[in-house]
Design a protein that fits this description.
Helix content: 10-25%
Number of helices: 1
Number of strands: 2
Strand order of the largest sheet: 1-2
Order of helices and strands: EEH
Distance between the termini: 31 Å
Strand content: 5-15%
Largest sheet: 2 strands, antiparallel
Radius of gyration: 15 Å
Structural class: alpha+beta
């Protein structure tokens, strides 16, 4: 198992994706629940500040 960055260029017959409670389906649209992401996840850096400053955009 690994993330997309560690598994690049590997040959695999089967691929699976583990999805946690971060992904939701609302009105047939897939959305993410940003507050449920790990606080050490650097891909969402600045999200909480944006949520405070511009909640509609966040």
């Amino acid at each position: 198992m690994g993330c997309i960055h560690t598994s690049q260029d590997l040959e695999a017959d089967y691929i699976g994706v583990i999805v946690g409670d971060v992904f939701l389906v609302r009105d047939r649209e897939i959305v993410t629940e940003g507050l449920k992401l790990s606080r050490i996840d650097r891909s969402v850096r600045g999200f909480k500040n944006l949520l405070k400053q511009e909640p509609d955009t966040a």
